[in-house]
Design brief:
The complex is a heterodimer of chains A (about 120) and B (about 110).
Chain A: E1 4-5, E2 10-14, E3 19-21, E4 24-25, E5 32-39, E6 46-52, E7 60-61, E8 64-69, E9 74-79, E10 88-96, E11 104-106, E12 110-115
Parallel strand pairs in A: 2-12
Antiparallel strand pairs in A: 1-4, 3-9, 5-6, 5-10, 7-8, 8-9, 10-11, 10-12
Chain B: E1 4-7, E2 10-13, E3 19-25, E4 31-37, E5 43-51, E6 54-57, E7 64-70, E8 73-78, E9 87-94, E10 104-105, E11 109-113
Parallel strand pairs in B: 2-11
Antiparallel strand pairs in B: 1-3, 3-8, 4-5, 4-9, 5-6, 7-8, 9-10, 9-11
Classes of the chains: A mainly beta (about 120), B mainly beta (about 110).
Chain lengths: ~120, ~110
């Protein structure tokens, strides 16, 4: 069963504007972690931000923030003040303890293109 | 800088050849992982290792094998490469003692099997 769903294959955003990338997840484990990674055209995977299931506040890292809505099982990434260098593919991922494997499950990704 | 490195970065090979992809890390992490990425599919876990004596299959381990030679080294082998193993391969590491177990990725190896 699909654990992570990213419904937006591609998005365009104007430079200096904010963009929200959607991510919904599915787990029955009360303890889990949610991650966002960025993959620029050069190919590397860059860790951006983490949200734990028990964290009371939404995670923030510089221009990145995570809109965590636990009851809806959503963990949307917000990039504020977009820059040309933000053009990349973004992956949402979840780690839960299902089967005690602690595996990281990835969504299919969202491509963001920032326009000047 | 503490880092995750992968060799080779690019490789073209022929069907039936044995290929080894290597991963080294200077982060001092205990956990290491191998993923493959195919267009439109995100990343899928091939194998993972929580310490030198612990090796586990991921969701797509058929056709692959691994070796954890030391805490800092984790290699992936394709015993007899086939064209549908053409993909971008990532090694990742994480630290079990941290609060988040965040995985940090190497730069990737682009493998083409002809």
């Amino acid at each position: 069963a699909q654990k992570i769903t990213q419904t937006q294959p591609g998005m365009f955003v104007q430079e200096k504007e904010a963009v929200t990338l959607d991510c919904t997840y599915d787990t029955s484990d009360p303890s889990y972690g949610l991650f966002w990674y960025k993959q620029p055209s050069s190919g590397e995977m860059i860790f951006l931000i983490y949200q734990g299931s028990y964290d009371q506040q939404n995670a923030t890292e510089g221009r990145y923030s995570l809109n965590f809505q636990k009851a809806r099982k959503s963990a949307n990434l917000v990039i504020s003040a977009s820059q040309l260098g933000d053009s990349a593919m973004y992956f949402c991922a979840m780690r839960d303890a299902g089967g005690n494997d602690y595996k990281l499950s990835f969504g299919a990704g969202t491509t963001v293109t920032v326009r000047a | 800088d503490a880092d995750v490195t992968q060799t080779p970065r690019n490789r073209i090979t022929k069907t039936g050849k044995r290929i080894m992809l290597e991963c080294s890390q200077t982060k001092g992490h205990d956990r290491m992982y191998w993923y493959r990425q195919d267009p439109g599919l995100g990343l899928r876990l091939i194998y993972y290792s929580f310490d030198v004596k612990d090796i586990n299959k991921g969701e797509i381990s058929d056709g692959y094998s691994v070796s954890r030679q030391a805490q800092a080294k984790f290699s992936l082998s394709l015993e007899s490469a086939i064209p549908n193993q053409t993909a971008l391969y990532f090694c990742a590491t994480s630290f079990s003692g941290g609060s988040t177990d965040t995985q940090y990725f190497g730069p990737g190896t682009r493998l083409t099997v002809l």
